[in-house]
Design brief:
By secondary structure, this protein is mainly beta. About 5% of the residues lie in helices and about 45% in strands. The protein has helices at about 5-10, 15-25, 85, 530-535, and strands at about 45-55, 60-65, 70-80, 105-110, 120-125, 130-140, 140-150, 175-185, 190-195, 200-210, 210-220, 245-250, 255-265, 270-275, 285-290, 310-315, 325-330, 335-345, 345-355, 375-380, 390-395, 400-410, 415-420, 445-455, 460-465, 470-480, 485-490, 515-525, 535-540, 545-550, 555-560, 570-575, 580, 590-595, 605-610.
């Protein structure tokens, strides 16, 4: 793999080692499938409607988008192995680019309808390696960003940067240039430009609001990127081999640059990973920094200094590119800011942390780091006062986050976190589609996960999704007006991914094939009794240790109480609705998980806060 690819998006390189091994395999391996060893829960809140693999021998999902008509756009990276013989099976007639461009990898852009049928699919790439990272849909058009080493086949005539900038004659090799590309929803290229300096660029995210295109990325170039009078017009790197600065740019809908700024000191690694735009046109960015000088804090920051090795930063810029506010966020170890969403004066940030301090807020869903390796984190801040509202850990050792998305239900916003994990605990909720990881999960094998949180920071649903090998969920795409969603991701598993009625029900032939996948889930329509059972509650909550179960009378219940590390601390049988449960002397202050069973073994789970 080229180093430029590692630079793009470290969490998204989960499959890199496996793919390199595929390219180097010189012996024939015989793989035996033992069927579906992963149990799916028939009583899940969501039903899988269909699931399909998609792509040639080595294809990796990097992002996806959904349009107002419910069509899904999958953005994948496809490797050159066996491409000449396989391309015809995956590219539709009349596509913008019907042949593989060359080099190590190309971009594969595909459109599916809501029933899982392929509408169109095209390659996009030149003679070198091309690596996409993000996609956005806006007003009937698609915007794609990433990195490329191709000097041809990537741009359109008259674009902002039609040609690569000449490389600076120094000893460091040139790995990649950035690119920004616009396609129509029918698969036609509208315009495309390099985003390029004299060294190396990697563009990580794109957001489009009111026809304005915002991108973020990272660079070690010192020219051709920023505009005069921008927040940070220049940067000086003390070590161009090992240091990067963030990059933030704004374009119009025709691909013309409006402004561009560096974001970082140049003395350490400063990586901008994602951005979001609020209703006033202000731009919020999130990233990760090693900086200890206070560069990423303003006078009204929530956290003024870096507390550990690497911290998260969250920053606010005006629509004209002036910095308005910025803060560090992190603990005593390594923390990573991954994604950001701004809604109704609130900032939502997802990421990962190895820090046991200064992360979660008191009373949050998961107050403590579990294990010594990365847990996922989910943070909410006020975008006007810049106060932290809450922050919670999620999961246990070995959490690798990929994306954050949201849906607007009839009552409130709901947030979906995705990624991959080799953890056996603290991931799924009771009644999830896949409550347990595949039996082979652990070590090098991971399962994907997807989790739904409320805007108050409470976990309402979470599930594994994976088979016998490596799996990752790259994104959840909530449906516009329905109680359902799509999953996109990457897998090496032969089982538990696709359905028999799918567009592509099997992985391609070969040793350790890797494919993108697309899955459709719909919320199960519950009967009256099921619906009422979901409405059982504990009162009061928070409590001093005395509470009752409230709701429809299902007869006698079994109540089991667990602490946040999974230990059962209390069980009582034959509990009736309204019956006082008095545990003032048995439950210390903290958060507990209460599981309720009825006589017919239905189960619901409620979080209990003991003051």
């Amino acid at each position: 793999m080229k180093k430029g690819k590692d630079f793009i998006f470290s969490f998204n390189n989960y499959f890199s080692v496996a793919l390199e091994n595929v390219a180097q395999v010189m012996t024939i391996l015989i793989c035996l499938s033992f069927g579906n060893l992963t149990a799916q829960n028939n009583s899940s809140l969501y039903d899988r409607i269909w699931g399909t693999y998609y792509g040639p021998y080595i294809t990796k999902s990097v992002s996806s988008a959904i349009d107002s008509d419910g069509n899904i756009y999958m953005l994948s990276e496809v490797w050159a192995l066996n491409m000449e013989t396989e391309a015809a099976n995956y590219i539709t007639p009349g596509a913008y680019q019907t042949t593989f461009g060359g080099g190590e990898s190309d971009i594969l852009l595909s459109k599916f309808d809501s029933e899982g049928s392929l509408v169109w699919s095209t390659f996009f790439g030149g003679e070198g390696g091309d690596w996409p990272t993000d996609i956005a849909w806006h007003n009937g058009n698609l915007y794609i960003v990433g990195s490329t080493s191709s000097s041809t086949g990537m741009t359109t005539t008259g674009s902002f940067q039609e040609f690569m900038v000449d490389m600076e004659p120094i000893t460091i090799p040139r790995y990649t240039s950035g690119f920004l590309t616009k396609f129509s929803s029918s698969g036609n290229l509208i315009w495309s430009t390099y985003v390029d300096g004299e060294r190396m660029e990697a563009i990580s995210s794109v957001t489009v609001e009111n026809g304005q295109v915002f991108i973020t990325g990272n660079t070690n170039s010192t020219s051709h990127l920023t505009t005069v009078g921008s927040f940070q017009e220049n940067v000086i790197f003390t070590d161009v081999h090992n240091q990067r600065a963030g990059l933030i740019m704004k374009f119009n809908e025709n691909g013309g640059r409006i402004w561009g700024t560096y974001y970082g000191s140049g003395a350490v690694n400063d990586m901008v990973s994602d951005l979001s735009v609020d209703s006033s046109g202000n731009l919020f960015v999130v990233g990760t920094t090693e900086d200890a000088t206070g560069y990423f804090s303003t006078t009204d920051a929530y956290q003024m200094q870096n507390n550990g090795n690497r911290d998260i930063f969250v920053s606010k810029f005006s629509s004209s590119g002036s910095r308005l506010w910025s803060t560090y966020y992190g603990g005593d170890e390594n923390d990573k800011g991954q994604n950001i969403i701004v809604l109704q004066n609130n900032i939502y940030v997802s990421g990962a942390s190895e820090s046991a301090t200064n992360i979660a807020s008191s009373g949050s869903y998961q107050e403590n780091l579990i294990g010594t390796h990365s847990n996922m984190i989910f943070l909410k801040m006020d975008s006007e006062t810049y106060d932290r509202i809450w922050c919670t850990y999620y999961g246990a050792n070995g959490m690798i986050p990929f994306n954050l998305s949201y849906s607007n239900s009839s009552e409130a916003y709901e947030f979906w976190l995705t990624g991959t994990t080799n953890s056996y605990e603290h991931i799924s909720t009771d009644g999830a589609y896949q409550e347990q990881p595949n039996p082979n999960t652990g070590g090098a094998n991971h399962d994907g996960y997807f989790a739904k949180f409320s805007e108050d920071g409470n976990l309402s649903y979470a599930s594994y999704y994976g088979g016998e090998k490596r799996d990752a969920i790259t994104k959840v795409l909530p449906m516009n007006d329905e109680d359902g969603f799509y999953l996109t991701g990457t897998t090496m598993s032969y089982n538990a991914i696709a359905t028999s009625n799918a567009y592509q029900s099997e992985l391609p032939n070969g040793n350790n094939p890797t494919n993108s996948f697309l899955i459709k889930f719909m919320q199960k329509r519950m009967g009256v009794e099921d619906s009422q059972y979901q409405k059982l509650s504990l009162w009061p909550n928070p409590t001093d240790g005395q509470f009752t179960v409230e709701g429809k009378n299902f007869g006698e219940l079994q109540i089991s109480i667990f602490d946040l590390i999974g230990r059962e601390v209390y069980t009582q049988y034959k509990v009736k609705i309204g019956q006082p449960i008095e545990l003032q002397d048995q439950l210390s202050s903290g958060i507990y998980i209460v599981k309720l069973k009825s006589q017919n073994q239905r189960l619901t789970t409620i979080k209990l806060l003991v003051k």
